[in-house]
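Milestone M4 deliverable, item 7.
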Amino acid sequence: MSNSSLPTLPASDRPEVAARLRDALLGAAFTADGLLELLGAPAYAALARSETVPALRATRGDTPLETLVRLFLLQQPVPHARVEDVLPVAECVGSGWLVSVGADEVAATVDVRPYGGPDGEDWFIVSDLGCAVGGAGGIGSREEGVVLGVGGASTTLAGITVRTPVSAALDLGTGSGIQALHAARHATRVTATDVNPRALHITALTLALSGAPAADLREGSLFEPVRDDETYELIVSNPPFVISPGARLTYRDGGMGGDDLCRSLVQEAGERLREGGFAQFLANWQHVEGEDWQDRLRSWVPRGCDAWIVQREVQDVTQYAELWLRDAGDHQGDTAAYEALYDAWLDEFEARKVRAVGFGWITLRRTDSDAPSITVEEWPHPVEQPLGDAVRVHFDRVDYLRAHDDAALLAAHFKLADEVIQEQVGLPGAEDPEHVVLRQHRGMRRATKVDTVGAGFAGVCDGTLSAGRILDAIAQLVGEDPVLLRDRTPAQIRLLVEQGFLEPVG
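Output delivered:
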């Protein structure tokens, strides 16, 4: 890999300089909250889209915070004297965070972006200049080794990750280090890998500038840098999952055929997980002519693992190709070259009989069960982030249902989950509704259709009576044989528990 055209990075072995720089940034309120107050919501949101004009207009003054915004976020040279009032300039230049420009100005060598941690921590994400927003959206960089900052994919993965205390966590393809930074909050030891040595360097800078412990940084692809005897309680990866003809861009193109990189990542994770440990990934997968996409993904799940796979989005191959060609800025260059690249993407998809590409989340949990649970579903609707607790509880419910047959379910007690409402759909004036829907307002925000017995059962569940006792009472009210009702209802109870509408009590 050649990074010769990319600027030299700051020294990553000078933690004392990073600590002093961090203190100076915090002292000037160079934080997520401070930026929002200075710039206002529209300009702040524009920065997240890599649009700088509103922020330039909002930082025409000479306050310390305005100086830092123009220096680190807007990549503008700033007079040495102004910076001297805010930062330890000599140390920052000596360590490579700043570089002298002309006779009396300095400029930043990297983008430093404030990032609010889940508990209000003031963190800073380092990335290459002009690449603070990661993922699709028009980065416009064709540099092979460029390191992006935080984008929608990064924050999605951080939000769905289970955050229980662990002794060892692994971040595969760490990039700018955002997942390693989150993991450092609840993992005794964090290992971060990347095929791009520049990414490992930037991860070290992100952790140091954020005041987080250093990670064990290792160069290599996928699980190559992991020793045979090493296992983890948490594995996370926002891998280079883009399905493309070739591997031009290290940060996004896996370099394997089709979706083989994501498949390999999932299949190899099982043996690296400790009992009860989680592996969580973002991924793309192909929708291949003549194949059921759900069956295809089930085949990826390694033995000895429960799995929950959620497809969040599907694009046809033309939309997909256009999205990622724009990501690299190919649409802004020579028209003939763009059309040739577009044609190459479509040739690749046609050769593999790919009709669409799915995007979503894959979560594995190591289990000793003889009957692992694999759930593959499509859920394109809005959810409530962070979802880490909801993911953990999903697998708790899997354990509960696996341990309870129908007779045990009828003997159990349940309560209706918080913030579940009932909706009735039907024609105005009709005696009975056509549909009864239970809807969640937390977590996955699911909605499920139930019959009148299911709705009545859920409405009565407060943990007091067993499921069987409730069904007996409903049978008496509706004039139905209680034995028949007990026989046909456990499947509906099981679904309501599985999807989180009902919670076991005790």
